[in-house]
Amino acid sequence: MRKDTYSRGVELNSMTPDKEDFEFNDDDGDLSVTTLEIPGPEGQQRQAWDSKIQFLLSVVGYAVGLGNIWRFPYLCQQNGGGAFLIPYVIMLFFEGVPLFYLELGIGQKLRKGSIGVWNHIHPYIGGVGISSCIIGIFVALYYNVIICWCLFYLFSSFRKHLPWSDCPMEGNVTLKECHISGSTSYYWYREALNISPGINDFGGVQFKMLGCLVLGWVIVFACVMRGIKSSGKVMYFTATFPYLVLIAFCIRAVTLPGAGAGLAHMFTPDVSKLQDPKVWLDASTQIFYSLGLGFGSLIAFASYNPPTSNCRRDAIMVSVINCGTSLFASIVVFAVLGFKAMNTHTVCLEDAAETIAAVIPDVNASMISSQEELQHFLQLHNETLHDLGIRNCSLQEELSQTAQGAGLAFIIFAQAIIELPAAPLWSVLFFMMLLTLGLGSMMGTLEGVLTAIFDMNLVTWMKKWMLAGIVCFLSLIVGIIFTTGAGQYWVSLFDSFAATFGLSVVALFEMIGVMYIYGHKRFSSDLEMMVGEKPGIYWQVTWRFIGPLIMLIVFISTLVGCIMNPLEYDAYSVEIAALVKQPYPAWAVAVALLLAITSFAPIPLVAFLRYFNITKVEMDIPASVKRMNTTPSTAAIMNNQENDDDEGSDDSGHNSEFLQQISQFK
Fold it and tell me: What per-residue confidence (pLDDT) applies to 336?
């Protein structure tokens, strides 16, 4: 291995644009990057990764998130079990890895945030970066609410007896609503959320959740206030701790009774499902969101790398780690859910046996220990037992009652945890794992947003921690709506419409912008200088043809699905203690449309304004390396470089300029 270290010093009175002084050591070991020092009015520094491992952990921590734990297992189970892995791997191969590599490559080459990158490529597609920034803000608004929920359950776990283990009592009788829904479901909807009957009823602010939300934003602010200098350090914990917990859960889960049934239920392939186009669409969207493509965060992360970093290897490595984590998490989840289903199945059989034994004197409860024996007695004494309401007690039905998202984490998995020995310990570990997964993704998302704001050159007078504080504070104020009784409905609304359309449009224009505007030959030359060889036929075909086609199909399919299907949400009914489908009211549909359109509207809007020269929408974005904490003085000094870049945009000048930069690392 090569150990590449560099440092950069710039004199204010003698700096030449586009000339960088690097110190490059070629020893054995891992890549290490020291902080880039740029003089400023207060001695500010321009940041870079401390080491290669810090960069990889940050990207892994960003890409591996809650979706790997509570979304992928559900999709696997609903879309053919093990057969779902076929479209999943195909979409990873043709969509995920190529776009991941493209974002890392263009960010590392141009060394700017998302807005700076797309303005540099062509002014008409400058709106792509703005859309990425808007989507990042939308997602951060509701994603931190999930961190808030994790904090609430984490604090509730520090007890000898978990509060969702039992139903509350009314006198000597179990509360009817809790008896119907179960203790974990009741605790989630009534104690934690105090959920309202529908999105029209806000139900007032739940102050316990508001307190957790405030704490969540304080934690996020502390992590991002100094850019990658602080978030990069935190990633050492947030990127590794979830794997330690998953390993511990896996060792415990596979030894539990029923684990084998749960794993068999998940991975048993149903090849007929592959004929359903929805399965392929689910695989495509899962790959897209799981890797965090289109948010601008990968571009921002790569912009802190030295030009010689092997971004192709990084893209493949992180993509494989992400895919492997999803599979590993599925094993853990369904082993635990198999244990829960087996326990529920056993209790069901015991209750049925006691009921039958009480009615039929010749029958002993010990005579019924399986579903087949229960069915035999039900058929034999049908007239006697018909009106007793004895359940079928099917293990397969219990295994099929899975969920995704909050339902999996805070209801089904919470129920499984209380059946484990030392339940509070496992509860603390589980919700700590969810918390660290959420924080890793949040830090990556905000990194992309904050870098984009700096690229706009609107707040150069402001210190880094001030900007981070303002973004976090405003997000907290807006996020109060998620702590009301209707908070979960608003989370679902944002989750369904804030990024679904925008990300597919952003990804489509990213590939078009790099391949057909920046130029695939020019980009290939850049990668050859950075990686050591030109991209082969696989990369060229996926970037230029297959990738854009997949993004276009995903966008059209999502749009058609929204038009053809009624816009509904799951509302909680107190009467039946369960979720029921309700149509969104007209005002909520208007909000959904506003979120969806706002996420990609800057792309055509910026192109329109610049084409007709209606108003000046260009940001003062110097072609210098844009990173966190770039100072006003540095920006002013580098202004001339942008003009130089515009004049010498031909490939030969571009390549010689970049070669000169690369040569200083040798």
Answer: 86
CB neighbour class for 215 (10 Å; exposed up to 12, middle 13-18, buried from 19): middle
pLDDT exceeds 70 at position 509: yes
Residues whose CB falls within 8 Å of the CB of residue 662, separated by 6 or more in sequence, listed in order: 307, 308, 529, 530
Q: Look up residue 460 and give its DSSP letter.
A: T
pTM, entire model: 0.83
What gap in Å lies between CA 254 and CA 655, rounded to an integer?
Answer: 55
Query: Do residues 188 and 413 lie in contact, with contact meaning Cβ atoms separated by under 8 Å?
Result: no
Range in 102-111, 228-237, 399-408 the model is least confident about: 399-408
Which candidate, 535, 27, 59, 550, places its Cα nearest to that of 290?
Answer: 59
Q: What are phi and psi of 158, to 5 degrees?
A: -85, 60
Structure tokens at 200: 């029209």
Helix ranges (DSSP H) in 291-310: 297-302
- Does residue 8 register a pLDDT over 60? no
User: Residue 93 above 50 pLDDT?
Assistant: yes
What pLDDT does residue 378 have? 65
Q: Which residue has the higher pLDDT, 145 or 337?
A: 145
Task: Give the whole-angstrom CA distance, residue 609 versus residue 591.
Answer: 25
Residues 6+ apart with CB under 8 A from 14: none
pLDDT at 523 over 70: yes
| pLDDT above 60: residue 660 | no
Segment holding 37, helix H or strand E = strand 36-37
Query: Would you state the torsion angle of the CA atoms of residues 11, 12, 14, 19, taken in this order, to the nearest 10 degrees?
Result: 70
Predicted local distance difference test score (pLDDT) of residue 602: 95
As beta bridge partners, residue 170 has 173
At 546 the pLDDT is 96
| More confidently predicted of 545 and 17 | 545
If you average pLDDT over residues 565-572, what whole number do you get? 90
Q: Residue 562 gets which letter from DSSP?
A: H
CB atoms closer than 10 angstroms to residue 16: 10
3-state helix, strand, coil in the chain (%, to 5): 70, 5, 30
How many angstroms separate the CA atoms of 293 and 311, rounded?
15
DSSP 579: E
Residue 231 to residue 382: CA distance in whole angstroms: 65
CB neighbours of 225 closer than 8 A, spacing ≥ 6?
464, 465, 468, 469
Residue 88 · residue 283 · CB < 8 Å: yes
Please, which residues have CB within 8 angstroms of residue 481's CB and are 6 or more apart in sequence? 202, 487, 490
**What is the DSSP code (8-state) at residue 2?**
E
How far apart CA 272 and CA 637 sit, in angstroms, is: 63
CA–CA gap between residue 490 and residue 549 (Å, rounded): 32
Q: Is the dihedral of CA 111, 115, 119, 122 positive or negative?
A: positive
Residue 638, CA distances (Å) to 6, 17, 156, 630, 648 in order: 21, 6, 53, 11, 16
Please check the confidence at residue 518 and state whether its pLDDT lies above 90.
yes
What are the beta bridge partners of residue 582?
569
